[in-house]
Amino acid sequence: MIGINEMFNPSSVAVVGASNSVGKVGYILVDNIVNGGYGGKVYPINPKSDEIQGIKAYKNVKDLPEVPELVVISIPSPFVNETLNDCGEFGVKNIVVITAGFKEVGGEGIKLEEEMISIIKKYNINLIGPNSLGTIDTHTPLNTSFSQAMPPKGNIAFVSQSGAMMVAIIDWSVTAGIGFSKVISLGNKAGSTEIELLEYLAEDKDTAVVIAYLESISEDENFVNTLRKVSAKKPVIILKSGSSAAGAEAASSHTGALAGSDLAFDTAFKQAGIFRVTTMDELFDVALAFSKCPIPTGRNLAIITNAGGGGVVSVDAMERFGLNLVEFDDKTTVKLKEAVPDEGSVKNPIDVLGDAPVSRYQETLGIVLDNEAVDSLIVMVCPTASADADGIADAIIDGAKDFDKPVIVVNMGGPTFINADKLLRENGIPTYVFPETAVKVVDYLARFEAVQERVYDDPIAEIKDVDTKTVSDIFAKVKTDGRDTLLGSEAYAVAKAYGISAAPIVLSTSNDEAGKIAEEIGFPVVLKIASDKILHKSDIGGVKVGISSKTEAEKVFDEIIASAKKAHPDIAPDGVEVQKMMDSGDEVLVGMVRDKQFGPMIAFGMGGIYVNLIEDVAFKLANGLTSDEIDEQFESTKVSTLLKGFRGEPAKDIKDVKEAIKRVAKLTLDFPEITELDINPIFVYENGSSALDIKIKL
Amino acid sequence: MIGINEMFNPSSVAVVGASNSVGKVGYILVDNIVNGGYGGKVYPINPKSDEIQGIKAYKNVKDLPEVPELVVISIPSPFVNETLNDCGEFGVKNIVVITAGFKEVGGEGIKLEEEMISIIKKYNINLIGPNSLGTIDTHTPLNTSFSQAMPPKGNIAFVSQSGAMMVAIIDWSVTAGIGFSKVISLGNKAGSTEIELLEYLAEDKDTAVVIAYLESISEDENFVNTLRKVSAKKPVIILKSGSSAAGAEAASSHTGALAGSDLAFDTAFKQAGIFRVTTMDELFDVALAFSKCPIPTGRNLAIITNAGGGGVVSVDAMERFGLNLVEFDDKTTVKLKEAVPDEGSVKNPIDVLGDAPVSRYQETLGIVLDNEAVDSLIVMVCPTASADADGIADAIIDGAKDFDKPVIVVNMGGPTFINADKLLRENGIPTYVFPETAVKVVDYLARFEAVQERVYDDPIAEIKDVDTKTVSDIFAKVKTDGRDTLLGSEAYAVAKAYGISAAPIVLSTSNDEAGKIAEEIGFPVVLKIASDKILHKSDIGGVKVGISSKTEAEKVFDEIIASAKKAHPDIAPDGVEVQKMMDSGDEVLVGMVRDKQFGPMIAFGMGGIYVNLIEDVAFKLANGLTSDEIDEQFESTKVSTLLKGFRGEPAKDIKDVKEAIKRVAKLTLDFPEITELDINPIFVYENGSSALDIKIKL
């Protein structure tokens, strides 16, 4: 993405397909660039005209007197790649392709887009599109889109995968009082992806907050780590739609069935420090707050209102969002008592009463913002007969400017506040109609502060005592055998090689061997038929528990083989597995389901036969997994309460459980051929733990 | 509430406290009534003036030439009750008290309000307030409030417990394009409660939808049954705030700990067929839809859009709300193919493309609405260069009027749609900016249809085979003993008297008796120390299981008594309980926690020692409980999946479980002295069930 800045702030722009016919895209593009205030050189390209809209035109990019820093292409799709080649040869580095008719139409379009990708790779070109509506930079200013309205200037960058949504939002931004730095229509993402653009916008000086409407995320196992660098600098808010399209995929493992297809996105966004919203109004409510407000230093909120009802509604919302209502100290309370009449309330939410004049708002605001315990302030104004909407707005603007704290205004009404809303927003104060919205955005502001505070360590990289050779060898053997599932004994060996505590399982192929192995691992043992083809092992007499002597083990070996042969004469079992019988403990599960997009997703939760009923499971992506995230994953389950010692039980070995999570993450990162992994149950004891049943699928 | 209609449409209104001083409440009231277009007689009452604002004034209500159908009072609080007495004696039936300074200020105000209540009871007066902002009827028209703005006329009735919120909403309604039939400020609810007013509004011909902002609900065990009559006629949408104030109360029973204080409201609203919303914008979004749209006959939705992105976002929202995307039949598809170009989509959501002219919207709309499978339609318009916002609006109005189906428009933008939004709303079509809002309101419309379809039977009333005498006697004995908790044997007897299947428990007071009882109920048995004072019975050797003979029972009796005496020398046990040992089954719990406001709330869910960890419990209020609601309660738990036969297990006796729910409901309705009840676990078998542990607290 070298030189991508020239995409938005080029010294010269060529428009391929520039036109003199009013209403045609090629006309609108030149018109928007020239009349949108762009100060650089504009080169219309049109093989049939010498002049476009009064500007000298050229027949081909290659004829230009200089290499344009940006080329915008809007010619029929069959001719686009030829132009791209010309651009590449001429040394052009930044291109926006407006033309549609590529991947999105299927058939020939897919081929054209593949060809396009190879051209831009060859010449190392930054390309937005094809099928893009174009880009807008309000600061340059440069409008390479065929949206005729230029959105208001501001500090929000908006990346949209839908052109129509982009147009809608530009129109709506006027009503919403929202200003943009850049608006980018992604189109088909043949060149620049949303991830690359987000990386760029993180560095963009004109942008304070990045928002995006996305229907897909480019496949990238490193997504979490890349986006963390973005969210460390700026708030990123994404409306990712299309969540319903795929639905939960059918999967053979517990873990797979528990994880829906949309869960991976949620998980990735959370770990990356990105905010995912589910509705468009939430996207813009939150963007407005980030575009105006400083970031608070915590979750303590104060409210000033001239209506008790508004306070009550806000407190409800605060409880839903987990924000704290500041309790004022005596000093502040004394001051507030001087400012607020007795019938009001100096307890948070502060009720300055329906008859509050501007001065009462002003004094209260100063006292509250001056209190160190207050991280954010919401000021609410109901249009009572005495409320001077504009005067209160002025007082808020004036009072807020001395403090580096978010002040958010709720102007509860319509016509009364048209001017006040404008005034406040122009002076860096976001306004909303309803108290719940204000509380919600404070939650986002505070959550961003928490993202900034995150520590990204790498506990998985610290694990060194693993034996990759053993695992590779086992996987090679499984593949040679033409199987896709490991035998219990193999899975045990893999776990052991990666330091995951498990009850020993060894495969025996004769009654004599079974006896010997049983003696080695220690009684009592379980014997189980070994075969990836026999599914319901217990039902056919393929499992015997509580075997307590060598002789018994030898005898049971023969019985199990006989039962299996009787039930499945056509299946040759691999032998009989001998497993040490463990004392029972609290049951947990650790699993992995591999996401196509983001790689291994690690599950932790309550184990046992009812996992799919209880659904007490939390997921994290292995890529970038931190110690804090493992703690959070653990704590977010109900079984964590059990392990910490429920109803007087002693606490269990939580450290060992977390170790298992880490090691499963490492194993599945090291071996991408593992498609599914389920350890259920793991018995957790006061000291240590033991995996009972390990299923690994390649 | 006889004659309450005169509260809103009186032939004459007297204003006590009427004033000539501009700006005073008594001035504004007269001004609002006279200049708000009211056509009836107006009588200002003021002891010091003969004329108020040019109208003949009277010194006292009693001096009036006729009994006014409505009296509005705004005089200092110490004088209000005297006036009320005068009104009562004179025969006034409807009064609005604007004056504040009653219950809400505490102290003397509480006394004044108590006195007020006795006066209105004495004279059978309908009274709104005190501390009300007044009422507005836009149809009469009559504005008895001191809000100077008259809201737009419409068919939404709005009841508000906060005066300031009422003012805010009146102001906002202009921007939101919402019209009201009546706006009522409840004040302190000394007379008319929100429940009575909702009952009245159900019959009001000018009102199509009732919305309310409430901070409390008047205590009424019959709430569910009363409000069902309202919701059978009109949609009722309530924003009930103050949910966080109380928090979950500490309770000694499982059931109590599982039920938060706010849960009772949620449960009551659901059972009453009322919609509870959590935010103010949701309240008004939904009200707008109900005020404009017919009620759909199902949950099948079609979408027409000129932007793919809007369709995707809508489908996501539909999945969240559980609405169905109609799959069109061949006939419709053929017609759509003629109307929509190939690059568009004739599959739902129908993409008419960004260049769609008015005619394409028009044709598509007709085809889709004509399809019988379509219950509701959302039409989305993005402001593309070709989109003719006003023309499309006209086409929608024209096309929708021939069909009795909800048509909801999403105009995704700002300035482009100002006129179109107005046009559509004036012609009975609600409009929203974002697709998710449109989908949400369709969900509400369809849910109201489901409310209309409900069958309210009374399965509890059908239970006749109960022995109330036995229960009364046991409770009397418990009270005489000075206890508040029943012994296990007593609780068993209560369960038996109410036909709840339970493992027999009988109290023995000697080793000889223990042996005899054990023999009678059949071995094996459990012996347990009987005492409401000994809490951890197992820990002190107070419980012995698996007793299989008479001799053993006699011996264990002595051992248990000895252990108990050793551990608690100060406690005299009531004896030893002998309980039949039952085979284990699937564990469920049935419980009851009594809500102060709504009466018994019945819990059903997964049983066992981890109930508070698993939290798989659903609640229903016993008052008005129907068979469908019991089914729903059962189905909403995870344990229902288990009982239906999980992972190949045979199905359990679900009928017996539901019988237990009904009978616990009946028991706790019949005996209000039961404060808490917990049956956990109940073992559920393939045939029948058996309650193991029953705790009843009075």
From TrEMBL, chains A, B:
<keyword id="KW-0547">Nucleotide-binding</keyword>
<dbReference type="InterPro" id="IPR036291">
    <property type="entry name" value="NAD(P)-bd_dom_sf"/>
</dbReference>
<dbReference type="GO" id="GO:0043758">
    <property type="term" value="F:acetate-CoA ligase (ADP-forming) activity"/>
</dbReference>
<dbReference type="InterPro" id="IPR016102">
    <property type="entry name" value="Succinyl-CoA_synth-like"/>
</dbReference>
<dbReference type="InterPro" id="IPR011761">
    <property type="entry name" value="ATP-grasp"/>
</dbReference>
<feature type="domain" description="ATP-grasp">
    <location>
        <begin position="492"/>
        <end position="528"/>
    </location>
</feature>
<dbReference type="Pfam" id="PF19045">
    <property type="entry name" value="Ligase_CoA_2"/>
</dbReference>
<dbReference type="GO" id="GO:0005524">
    <property type="term" value="F:ATP binding"/>
</dbReference>
<keyword id="KW-0067">ATP-binding</keyword>
<dbReference type="InterPro" id="IPR051538">
    <property type="entry name" value="Acyl-CoA_Synth/Transferase"/>
</dbReference>
<dbReference type="InterPro" id="IPR013815">
    <property type="entry name" value="ATP_grasp_subdomain_1"/>
</dbReference>
<dbReference type="GO" id="GO:0046872">
    <property type="term" value="F:metal ion binding"/>
</dbReference>
<dbReference type="InterPro" id="IPR032875">
    <property type="entry name" value="Succ_CoA_lig_flav_dom"/>
</dbReference>
<dbReference type="Pfam" id="PF13607">
    <property type="entry name" value="Succ_CoA_lig"/>
</dbReference>
<protein>
    <recommendedName>
        <fullName>acetate--CoA ligase (ADP-forming)</fullName>
        <ecNumber>6.2.1.13</ecNumber>
    </recommendedName>
</protein>
<dbReference type="InterPro" id="IPR003781">
    <property type="entry name" value="CoA-bd"/>
</dbReference>
<dbReference type="Pfam" id="PF13549">
    <property type="entry name" value="ATP-grasp_5"/>
</dbReference>
<dbReference type="Pfam" id="PF13380">
    <property type="entry name" value="CoA_binding_2"/>
</dbReference>
<keyword id="KW-0436">Ligase</keyword>
<dbReference type="InterPro" id="IPR043938">
    <property type="entry name" value="Ligase_CoA_dom"/>
</dbReference>
